[in-house]
């Protein structure tokens, strides 16, 4: 199973990019994959081809009306493990003895 953290946004649309980010988050949401949004990006969990397909769809959605797009990705693969989006956080919380801020 793969965790993919990414952020994708246009560089030619001014300071406020939330409409473009929302367009991509909707693609992530409709993918059916487990995901988590945070202030600087989105984490999705699935098989390699599934998560890369989501990124491709986001790119194509922005490409329609954006002349310059930046995408930053970080990928973590661990064979035989699932539910790592929350499992990794739970592991840290257990070691700390308290819940971390979300």
From TrEMBL:
Gene3D superfamilies: 3.30.70.930
Xref: InterPro entries: MTH1187/YkoF-like, Thiamine_BP, UPF0045_domain
Domain Thiamine-binding protein: 5-93
Source superkingdom: Bacteria
GO cellular component: cytosol
Signal peptide coordinates: none
Stated family: Belongs to the UPF0045 family.
Name under which the protein is recorded: Thiamine-binding protein domain-containing protein
Species, as recorded: Thermogutta terrifontis
